[in-house]
């Protein structure tokens, strides 16, 4: 059976992984000065940072609409026995709802609500691709994905709150107040929404390592199959230090480093770093 795995551009998988597993990507839209650009195709994260640095305004994001999804799904539904599409969490965007409406036009297209962001989506997409490659039936893949969704643990630490505050995507960040801008908060995705977790203070690189320790220490529920490190503009030295610390704290079989795309970059800004893993099934 021929199964196609597809995903929204917010999955933030590397071009190498996308090509290796033949994953198709649908781009969300980034809106800057009233003009819509396709995420990762017509605009890159550095374009967003440069624009915001210049005029202080953050870019907005827009969902993939129903017509886009229909145009996207139609040829795939004819070429494959099943198309499994993993969406950005439904609490963050209307993409999932739009994909569901579009999928009603076809008998073999199955959208999945990741209830997640960035590499949290990517984790599910990679799992879906591996299951499809192993010959698993579409219904079983969807069941396994829906079972895995609440077990994906996504979090990230921000150097500055400016982007997230201006974008208004996390009400608990807005509640922190301007007097706490010196803090480096951990943002957690829980039950499909963003929440502020532990707050760190001090030099960013040191805070990042403290954040990794806090997420991975003293846990008996972590699956050590895979860890994602996702970032917007982290230095190679910092990324290497994060991987070293993570491997010291857990015997991960695989550590994948990936760069966040335009959607997470537009909301979180530069110097954002996160880790993603699954809890045991």
UniProtKB/TrEMBL annotation:
Q: Which Pfam families match?
A: DegV (PF02645)
InterPro entries, per the entry: DegV, DegV_C, DegV_domain_contain
Q: Which GO terms describe its molecular function?
A: lipid binding
Q: What UniProt keywords apply to this chain's record, in alphabetical order? A: Lipid-binding
Give the NCBIfam families listed for this entry: DegV
Q: What is this protein called?
A: DegV domain-containing protein SAV1425
